[in-house]
Design brief:
Blueprint (H helix, E strand, L loop, with lengths): L1 H32 L6 H8 L3 H13 L3 E3 L6 E3 L2 H13 L2 H15 L2 E8 L2 E8 L14 E2 L5 H7 L4 H11 L12 H14 L2 E4 L6 E9 L5 E10 L5 H5 L2 H16 L2
Antiparallel strand pairs: 1-2, 3-4, 3-8, 4-5, 6-7, 7-8
Helix pairs in contact: 1-3, 2-3, 5-10
Amino acid sequence: MEHCSILWNTNLEHQQSTRALLRGLKIIGILAEGRDGMRLTEIARKAGLSKSSAHRLLQTLAQEGFVAQNGVSSHYHLSLKLLWLASNLIDGLGLDQLVRPLLEELAHTTRETVHMALLDGEAAVYIEKIDSPSSIRLYSRVGKRVPLHCTGLGKAILAYLPEERVSEIVAVEGLPRRTAYTITKPKALGEHLAVIRAQGYALDEEEHEEGVRCIAAPLFDRQTHVIGAVSITTIGLRVDREMLLSGWPQLRDCTQKVSTVLQHH
């Protein structure tokens, strides 16, 4: 009888663990569909759970680094740890061998530094950098987080996010001045983002760092949601605005190809 009791308890614990795992994975899937994050009530409803059960699972996922919570709106969203897992999968699939050559080609044809970044919460994170073929090197590194409101990459992303999500990001991060050219007023930023959407690219004209200019264009997933951007970065004293804009056709071609690769793998 004692042996049967131990087996019954073991099976029960196994069932409970499996159930919790399945519920946690379901929550991750739900958050993946909510591009702007979700409140606890909405997550619980979609998962068919009580708020207390959903909250416990979310706290566990947060402790393990898979989920993060916006401090202002209390929305939950997936964290960059999933990108790390995805990057390992990408390496296994050879996806990096498809994306990096496109960025290298852009750097070669423009003879400038090329960055690729993905949106992570309220910032953009560099995931690729191809140095300029010239002797000039820019200080930037893969893994670095950069603000959205004053970088070309960031503005290219912001321009294609819903207005309410942009408002949330501004509420959390503010619009801190980095240089004399940084946009620091929400209304001015909104008008600027409308221009970016109309032309398809964003310019950073020394708004984040004095002496550095860049042009950037967005990347989209299979559902046409913006997920990141690619930029051409230059030294302002060497490249003026018109020279920077001359790289737009190559940048547009590159981002279209990179988006296609991301959408089909």
